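Subject: two folds for Thursday's group meeting

Dear M.,

Sorry for the delay on this. The cluster queue was jammed most of the week, so I only got both jobs back this morning. I'm pasting them in the order they finished. Each block is the input sequence followed by the predicted structure tokens. Could you check whether the formatting survives your parser before we put anything on slides? The first protein is the one we discussed after the seminar.
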Amino acid sequence: MASYYYYYLLFVLVATAAISEADSKTKLSKDFYSRSCPKLLPIVKDEIIKAINKETRMGASLLRLHFHDCFVNGCDASILLDNTKNFIGEKTAAANNNSARGFDVIDDIKTKVEKACPRIVSCADILALAARDSVVYLGGPSWEVGLGRRDSTTASRAAANNSIPAPFFSLTTLKSNFANHGLFVEDLVALSGGHTIGLARCVQFRAHIYNDSNIDASFAKSLRSKCPRKGNDAVLAPLELQTPTHFDNLYYKNLLVKRGLLHSDQELLNGGSTSALVKKFAANKNEFFKAFSKGMVKMSSIKPLTGKKGQIRIHCRKVN
């Protein structure tokens, strides 16, 4: 009987160890590349600083690229894939066409990472790090980036069209969209604060400045001068007028005076819980930073491919 319990206990210990090892390969970890690619973090950080110094807008573009990637079947770098004979990718989806940017920066980072540690680091992880480092360099908060994602082997324009929130969404639709990705109301309001940096095209805010009543009249008038009812679709305006290249909480202060650039931005001040959060973040930058960091950790963990799923792409724009 004693020997039976001995072997039973041994079996339990071995099984537990096996499960623990399997879990470690499927869970994201900030130390995932600590041994296999110790130069990863400094490479990404240095390249992000170079890219933003070259074009300050790039930081916002990289944050948006990560966001649009994660909202379409998870954070798997599918947004980076070019079209093939087998699929139409996400670059020409409504939210990305002539709008998504930063692909060249990710390519440059990937080239340097491949040179340092070939076939080790995924494009999805590079995207996640690039977003965090961009926000930090522009004065925003930092957060712990779990690593260990793998890259998808396909992409879908249809999925992107159905999954990425649009600038004309109502508050109800925004809540539903975020909830579909496991994100709550506080995540919606906090992550929307990413619009404290960057620019938007006339086609994205035209309806808001001509059709909506919840917009400051003088603000709408100033925008109409550059964004007519027809034409000039690609003309740009800052998502947050005062400091569009500095990550702060002025985005929320603008919402309080009806100066949100997008319809979907100003909608946040159209409901009890979201309005309260807008006021909270407008009054306290630290509270916004804390909620934004928390939201980014959650968003960047949406349905990652781990373990043996997917692949580690050698070139981010195409499947191996």
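Second protein, same layout:
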Amino acid sequence: MNQKMRVDTIVISILFAALCIASIARSASSLSKDPFLGISPEDVKYYKSSSEIKCKDGSRKFSKAQLNDDFCDCPDGTDEPGTSACPNGKFYCQNAGHIPKVVFSSRVNDGICDCCDGSDENDGKVKCQNTCWEAGKVARDKLKKKIATYQEGVTLRKREIEKAKAAIAKDEAELTKLKNEEKVLKDIVQQLREKKEQIEKAEEKEHLEKEKKEKERKEAEQAVVHEKGEDEAKKKDESDEKSTESVHDDIIGTTDDSSSNQELAAEVGNDDTSEKDQSSATAADQHAVDKKEKSPPEDNENSAFVPEVVHDA
């Protein structure tokens, strides 16, 4: 590829040199005969448009015969681009093989070669050598270097484009791979999230069951304690009732014994009254003492009541 580029560069240089040489020869042969001397290639069409040519400032018109006739017809120098007749005119140097140049028309035919092709000195008084080829050599070398640099840049650009394409393809493949992995990871995350929710629900259910069992256990314990308290209170009430009934029975028995002793004493007779009264009193006292010892200690009032009844009897 580099060899082909060198060949192309050489061909271009040869063609460019041939064109320059032909232009120089043509300009040298027709310098004095060219009616459009000093006119730039862009303005040639303007001067060829019609038989009567307007001054560029629009002040007047002039014919083609008046063009470069060494007489200033237009104040702006439109009719004398190739002579020094108009002070405001401009002369265009073609400088084939080098860079074109524009000079003031006052420098035309002044005896000094201002254009490298010598076109500004066309009256034959001064012979100017065409130095455009030598002067343009530096410019041509720069142009060649510029072309070579451009071609090298094009080659590097193609290489970079190929590298970029490969990198883009690689990145696209990596992106596709990452997208697939992302999809797989999303599925895994979704599954883990569902499992987590299931575990949390199971833990919550277990926790609620534990709380329920703990509540039932406490309620059962409270019920048992309550039942025990009721049984103890019931037993205590029954015990109190039994104690009260025993004391009551003892009092009734004591009263019956006292009545029997009185009737016995009345039946014995008056003869042994003193002896029998003493004997009955002794027996009644002894019986009251025995009952007192057998009766519960808490019923003190009833116990105290017994000797009084016996004593009265």
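Two things I noticed about the second structure. The longest strand covers residues 90-93. The helical segments are 2-29, 44-47, 132-268, 273-294, 300-312.

Cheers,
T.
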